[in-house]
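Recall that a protein's primary structure is simply its ordered list of amino acids. Everything else, from secondary elements to tertiary packing, is in principle encoded there. The following example makes that idea concrete.
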Amino acid sequence: MCTRSLWEIIWSCAATLFACTWTAIHPNIPGMDEGKFTVFSRRLGIMMIALIAPELMITWTAIQFLSARDTAKAFNDTFEWTVTHGFFVWMGGFMLYLNDKPRATLATRELERFVHEGSVEMPVIMQADIEDRSKGDALSKGIAILQLVWFVLQLVARYVQNLPMTLLELDTLAVATLASIAYGFWWKKPKDVGPGQCLEVYIAWAGMFCFKGVQSRYYGVQLPSR
């Protein structure tokens, strides 16, 4: 009979949960004035939600995926965008610049409006340009998947051999399965992009009148009247 120590069971479950939660989290881009502690605390909070209420994680990530897909479709009239582009907009990846200085992060509807009005100079953005800013590559994603697959195979082997499984292992399997679904929705989302890696969007001076009434939010200067 195959025997396992308590430490072996706890380690196997902890490694699987860590791979399916902490390493799988794709947070939005932090604000320019947010420190490392704030970023860490936010990520820790997301991890706790994934452990305590994984169904909420699935709902949240599904909404993000659908929003990113809709954004990509909205910009496809002008640019050839993918879901990755849509995710990058929603996570705060476009920074408005004036006089070579960052002024504000553009929300999705703001960016869409300004692009359609010709108020900003939009750079040509390839998916590879965004992926270069992401710290999540195929290797890191593959490691998380392999850890989950190895854990599942261990449980399947014990089931086939009629060996007992602990309640901790069954709970870990349930949480990891739900977290993997959320991970799938985040598959195309850039991971761990820093605030200094946003794409720069510059004001097109010919269209500056479009910003009248919201200048305080964007660049704090008085615009001329029409």
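The chain has nine helices and four strands. The chain has a mean pLDDT of 79.
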